[in-house]
Amino acid sequence: MATEQDVVELILADHRTMEDLFREMRDVEGDREGALKTFADLLIAHAEAEEAEVYPALKRFRNIESGEVEHGVEEHTEANEALLALLEVDEIGSDEWDEKLEKLVESVNHHAHEEEATILNGARENVPAERRAELAAAFAAERERQLKAGCGDPENIRRLLKS
Fold first, then answer.
1. Which pLDDT score, from 0 to 100, does residue 67 have?
2. Contact 14, 116 (CB under 8 A)
């Protein structure tokens, strides 16, 4: 029988995985292309699941600033733009690729830090454990749906940026 999960812990786990993938993408000995593909899928699935399942629910709780949630959505868009710019570079490991990678790292790390300090701490302190478990299930299901759909494909990212 599966144990109940906490949406905050699932989101934090994704953030740590993204940090690991950044290290792999920076490693000239690593599978940079594979890490980028995995990262693209994870970033898009993670952000889409947050926006569809988590953020709207958290806006309803007192002590969780809806402005912070809206800011999180804006930062997802910025990260998507940085990701697309990196995916569009022809040569992995080129100076241009390294430059675009660092812009992506900066964007995602900034967002993760802010989200962890504001939205996730607020959720941990103000949202009952039972509701966090419900949100975890919804987040995980939407994240999985996105991953199965190949959400990190550049064409999908372009579509998301236009909507």
1. 79
2. no
121 φ/ψ angles, rounded to the nearest 5 degrees = -65, -40
CB atoms under 10 Å from CB of 85, counted, come to 15
CA distance readout (Å), 29 to 24, 35, 80: 9, 12, 26
* Nearest CA-CA partner of 101 in 112, 114, 91: 91
* C-beta separation of 49 from 146 below 8 A: yes
What region does 127 belong to: left with phi over 0, alpha with psi -120 to 50, or beta? beta
* CA distances in angstroms from 107 to 20, 43, 144, listed in the order given: 16, 12, 24
- Quote the distance between the C-alpha of residue 39 and its chain's center: 9
pTM above 0.85, yes or no: yes
